[in-house]
Design brief:
Layout lengths: L1 E7 L6 H9 L10 E6 L16 E5 L19 E5 L9 H11 L3 E9 L7 E5 L9 E3 L1 E9 L18 H10 L5 E3 L34 H14 L9
Amino acid sequence: MISVILNVYKRPYSLEDQIKMIKAQSVEVKSENIHIWYNLPENEMEQYLPDDEKIKTYECNYNTKFYGRFTLPLLCKTPYIAMFDDDTIAGKDWFKNCLNTLEIQDGILGGSGVVLQGNNYVPNYKVGWNGVHSEKIEEVDLVGHAWFFKQEYAKFMWEENPPSWDNGEDMFLSYVAQKHGIKTFVPPHPERNQELWGNVPGRDKNMGNDAAASWLGNTGHYAERSVIVNELINRGWKTVKNG
């Protein structure tokens, strides 16, 4: 039913915990439906390879940054795709939460949503595990860290070139999906039930803020994202505030 895409770059040590997280989900995922994209690995990968030979691995000798992994959903044959950044450990009911949400509201789902306040990336406010902990489904402009969507939507990502191949894959996915009438949402993230969350802080050992974080050391990170927001709005992206 669900194919899972994991991305490995500078955090191969997180892979074991992520596979355990997938295996512990209340909605079963078969090993043959787990895909690992090794994106120009900088570490010796043999010690991190999963013992389960049914798990599929793809090693790329070029740094495709954030976009390469989005080719893998095109190869999947399950109805749904779940994708995770390498610093994300979801609660055990995350897949169940997403499936329940899609029964009510079709869309691109994610664990960390951003609602833009204007034509730039900042200021914004966040919804999900690292923002507003809502009891209901919340519409947002983009989602990140963990995505969940129908496999048939994977092709949208490749219908046109993004503004940048170096940043903004989260915005671009929501933009191209919106062109097909598909909006973006964060499933319920109730304060008292973290097992429904797309990421549970602490379980990820705060990896999102470690030395491997792509946004650290890049003083122009948010400026780059604002340029992408402006370009996508010029292409027709309707944000929640300005839709």
